[in-house]
Amino acid sequence: MGGTGRKTVYGGKWQAVRKKVLTRDGNRCQIGLPLICTIDATCVDHITPVAWGGEWWDLANLRAACQPCNQQLGAIARKHTPRANEVRNANGEGSRSIPQAPSSRDW
Description:
Strand order of the largest sheet: 1-2
Order of helices and strands: HHEEHEE
Distance between the termini: 30 Å
Largest sheet: 2 strands, antiparallel
Strand content: 5-15%
Shape: globular
C-alpha cells in the first residue's frame, strides 16, 4: 500500500548519502552537546529538520552526529514541531484542532 515508511526512506540512496556525510565530516560529531557527546559519529543529522522546511537530501543540510547528540536534538525538534492536526494561537499558547472540511455525508 505505497507510502514512504522508515525502511523506504532510509534505504539505499540514504545509505550512500549517509556514508558521504560521515566521510566528509571525518566521522566526528559536528553537534558536540556538552556532557553527552561521544565524538564518534554514527548518525547523520538534518541541520534544519525536514518538518521545519529543511531539505532531505541537501548535503549542506546534513552533518555527522553521534547517537546521543542526534537523539537529543531530535527530541527537542519533535517537542517544538506542532502535529499536523494542531495549531498554536498567536501567543503560542494552547492548541486546537484544525477545522476539517465537511464530508459528503454532512451535506
